[in-house]
């Protein structure tokens, strides 16, 4: 039985434009259109696999034939792109069939652009979104060992803002006291001077 409600909806680059019934073989087909310009149809029994990403719902079947993942089961497609991310932070271009080299920011984080018009994205967040469930909808991704370039899935966890700050303090990545605080207005010398300025030195 076809899912009528999906007509007009988009799955990544693919829009379902209509449903076709074939009286000859009693099959139901979904007629789809991809942003790459390809029109195709898919049998209803295969549509669930297509829509949930098992055949890469982000691109059409023609694109899927042209853009392959590397022979490594640690990669997953990044939604709505022709790029994939591995569980250890490698970024793969399906269009160019090669690994991309992320840039390391001055902050120490690895970042990548997924296409010319893409914004800069942190690699560790791509890994977390692909491989780590986030049932509590926490907003931050934390490097457990404190090494910002270590983007292996086992080194990442979803955390709240406060948990992220506390972790940075606990492992020494952040010091929010004294002169180490960016909002500090007095140096240790200033404090000592003020403390001693009221003392009688005679």
Structural class: alpha+beta
Helix percentage: 10-25%
Overall geometry: elongated
In whole angstroms, the N-to-C terminal distance is 98 Å
Radius of gyration: 26 Å
Task: Describe the fold and architecture.
The protein is built from 5 helices and 13 strands. The chain has 202 residues and is of the alpha+beta class. A 4-stranded antiparallel β-sheet has the order 1-2-3-4, covered by helices on one side. The chain is elongated and about 100 Å long.
Short account of what is shown:
The protein has helices at 44-51, 61-66, 123-131, 161-170, 188-197, and strands at 10-11, 14-22, 27-34, 39-43, 75-77, 83-86, 91-93, 98-100, 103-104, 110-113, 120-122, 140-143, 156-159. The chain is α+β, with helices and mostly antiparallel strands.
List the helices and strands and how they pair.
Elements: E1 10-11, E2 14-22, E3 27-34, E4 39-43, H1 44-51, H2 61-66, E5 75-77, E6 83-86, E7 91-93, E8 98-100, E9 103-104, E10 110-113, E11 120-122, H3 123-131, E12 140-143, E13 156-159, H4 161-170, H5 188-197
Antiparallel strand pairs: 1-2, 2-3, 3-4, 5-6, 6-7, 7-8, 9-10, 10-11, 12-13
Essential attributes:
202 residues; alpha+beta; four-stranded antiparallel β-sheet; 5 helices
């Amino acid at each position: 039985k076809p899912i009528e409600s999906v007509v007009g909806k988009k799955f990544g680059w693919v829009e379902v434009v209509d449903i076709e019934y074939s009286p000859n073989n009693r099959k139901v087909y979904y007629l789809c259109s991809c942003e790459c310009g390809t029109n195709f149809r898919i049998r209803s029994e295969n549509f669930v696999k297509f829509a949930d990403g098992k055949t890469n719902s982000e691109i059409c079947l023609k694109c899927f034939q042209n853009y392959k993942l590397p022979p490594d089961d640690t990669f997953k497609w990044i939604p709505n792109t022709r790029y994939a991310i591995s569980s250890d932070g490698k970024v793969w271009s399906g269009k160019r069939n090669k690994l991309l080299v992320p840039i390391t920011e001055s902050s120490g984080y690895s970042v990548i652009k997924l296409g010319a018009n893409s914004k800069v994205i942190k690699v560790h967040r791509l890994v977390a979104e692909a491989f780590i469930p986030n049932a509590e909808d926490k907003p931050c991704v934390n490097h457990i060992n404190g090494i910002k370039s270590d983007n292996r899935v086992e080194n990442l966890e979803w955390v709240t803002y406060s948990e992220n700050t506390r972790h940075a303090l606990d492992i020494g990545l952040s010091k929010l006291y004294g002169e180490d605080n960016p909002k500090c207005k007095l140096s240790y010398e200033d404090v000592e001077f003020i403390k001693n300025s009221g003392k009688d030195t005679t």
